[in-house]
Sequence to fold (95 residues):
Amino acid sequence: MAMKILGSLIFTVVELLIVAIRCSVTRTFNDNRNVQSLRTHLSEELSDTKIRMLHSEDNVGMRLASVNVIIEEANRVFEDEDEVKKRCFIEKCCS
Fold:
């Protein structure tokens, strides 16, 4: 009778230990998988963000270049306007 109780007790303890160990191992594998998934996701997300930022910088660079061209053209127009005003003034005075 005592052996049955002892055997049942040992069986219960071993069963609980196996369940606890299985849960711990499963959690460890799940944690490792989750960390790897997070690492992959962050790596891809950061790479995509970096590419978008580089394209954005390229667009900004192109926009700045076109703005510089427009400013140069405007400056030439203003310079030409001054020349035209000078010519008109000279022609009016000399006429």
